[in-house]
Amino acid sequence: MTVLKSVMVAGIRGVPKACTLTPTKRGLLLRGDNGTGKSSLVQGLSLGLTGKLGMPIDVEVPADLIRHHRGTDDAKHVVIELAPRGRIELRGDAEPVCDAEGRAFRDACVRAAPFLRRDELLRVVTQKDTSRLRYLEGFMDLGQVERLESALRDRRLELKQSVAPLAKRLADHLDVAGRLFGAKIGSTKELVSLVTGRAMAAGLAVPRDTGWPELCAMIREGTAARTALEPLRQAEKKASEAHLLELLREALEIVKAEPALDSCPVCEQAVTKRGLAKRLGARIEAMDELQGLKERAEELAEEWATFLESLSELEAAAFEEVDVVSPPESFEDLDGRELLEELGRDHHLSRKTLARLKRVRDKLGATLKSLPNERQTVGLEQLVKVIQAMGDDLGPLQRAESELARGNELLERIHKVETAIEAARKTEVAKILDGIGERVVTFYKRIHPSDAGDEPTGAPSLKVQRHGKGTARLLGLFDGKVVKDPRHVYSEGHLDTIGLAFFLALRRSRADREGARDPKLMVLDDIVGSIDAGHFDRFLDVLRDEFDDHQILFASHSGLLMTAARRALPGAAAQTIVDWSLENGPRLSGHTLPLDELREKLGTSGDPAQLARALAAPLEPFLKEACAGLAVSLPYEQSDLTVADCWDALRKKLGKLTKEGLLPDVSPEVAAVGDLDLIRNTLGAHHNPDMLADAALGPVKRVAEAFLGLVDKLSCTACRGVLRLKNRKNTAAGLGCQCPKGGPPQLSCQKDATSGVRGS
Predict the structure, then answer these.
(1) Is 210 found in the same domain as 96?
(2) Does residue 106 share a domain with residue 165?
(3) C-alpha pair distances (Å), 360 with each of 22, 49, 315, 321, 398
(4) Are residues 602 and 588 in the same domain?
(5) I want to staple 37 with a disulfide (CB 3.0 to 4.6 A). Which of 85, 110, 300, 586 is the partner?
(6) What does the pLDDT look like over 571-600, one tens digit per residue?
């Protein structure tokens, strides 16, 4: 098991110069008054082990305030030595330098969250249900899951960014074709299928498996064939049957209107002048009429010649033949009337012409059946526009579409994995929290026994729900009834106990789950503020019984609590912060408890005020512990007692127990301490420097010496615990201590180890 061997902190907040903590395998008890740098030392340790300063909840510390006020960023320095091996060194803002063991231990501490501050005790109580679940998850070392979730999330975002241009490119191209077709096209496959269907509807014989380039070529060929047919269509329009019939009717009427060619146009009948003029006028009129008919005949002849030329052009276009039937060259030498007469003599002209026309129409009909009609031509022209917009090669677009499909498939798989991990995480977290909730109940009941008559509160319960982001409801219990919010009925001390119970339960749960990978470390920084001595003793019992595999670092300003912690953690080292200054920071007395510090001051200090302060630290805790252990009847509640109250009641009990032979003779020490007027007037529960200013060193020194002698006679040299009655109601049962297996206490004035003690 890897443990802390030494911790050197310098250049951080209240620690300008190097200050070294030296815990044992069991831990370290660090005592110091408020404002003497305890938390700065703990924060330096936190910075070295986790990279975080370990400040109060939601407090962001500017970088220039993490270092000492008069130092520089480079002055920050933390060196952590591990046992049996390992080293972690942090300098300035650089990454810590670690050997393999140091790196493993530091990584384990980052995951384990072993630090607890006083201000964090109420966090589990005050948070909202969702935030409480996230907070509790932070103690479960879900780092691997979170890293996997983060990696999947990053990969998903990366894929989304890579497929987005592909999706836009594909959508833009398909939207162009969609607008031309008036339809929604979702893929190149749909595009090819739609174009193939439209081409077949336009009269093209397209196989279903035709590729895009071949399809484009077929559409272009079909359009070209339709363009080549245009001369046939125009020729057909010129040589329509209706036009021919109209022309023939006009020609027939003109032929009928012609005067008989064998009649004599000259009248031989003799007439008078008037009659002659009349006849001349009639002849001129007849001649004018004939001239008009002749002109009309010329026009008809020209139209007929044009028709024949058009028919020849039509035949040439249809059969690729030239001059199938050409008008006689002699037609050019005939005037209109002669041309009509020539045509009139040819009785087979109409039938031949109609036969020719029928032949052309049959050819046209067969050709038209194999080529697109007007509606189909429009469809082909639309397909040509689509081809022009999309290009003959869909390869790049299809590759982009394939890549997009693979990306979307991978995105779907990532989503499924994320969903599965989230569900598994919720299940596992709920399972772990159920176990943690059971431990919380156990630890809370050990600190606040439910069978105590003055204990109406019950252990809190944790209700975890998995819906949505998940919630963790914290319910209280008061007088047997469930309370939705413990703050409504629990005292401040009870609420602090909830926080302690949760921290211990989380720590125990994680240590059990991780086994050797867990650092088995717990750092408690001034966590006790509203918990009284009795409940704190039970808390220490939990530490002793449930965390004997942990190295525990406990920092506090209370000498009473340090003394109690010493009994519960007898193997832990103890260091005291003697004083503090801005220039030098905290000064440690070494491996000393307040009693050891007092002994040191007796030999070194010439200042009565300083010696009195050293005496005040262990005096009150010792007197209260001795009163509790020896069943001293006190006049007030423990919280209202002064040092003098405890001393007055204790010395009477000491005299009685001495007479009964249970205690060594402590009368010299009791007499030397006297009435504690000096302490009553100048120390009490607070330090009064003005009243100590005129105090003489001798009286304070005599009281301190007598007090230390009294402590020696009332303490076991083996466990350093204060003597206590084995049976509070029956003193004949003798005295006990904190030694294991219930053996008799070992006293410094005792010559042999017996069940009793003798007078000194």
Answers:
(1) no
(2) no
(3) 118, 102, 6, 12, 48
(4) no
(5) 586
(6) 888 888 878 888 888 888 654 456 766 777
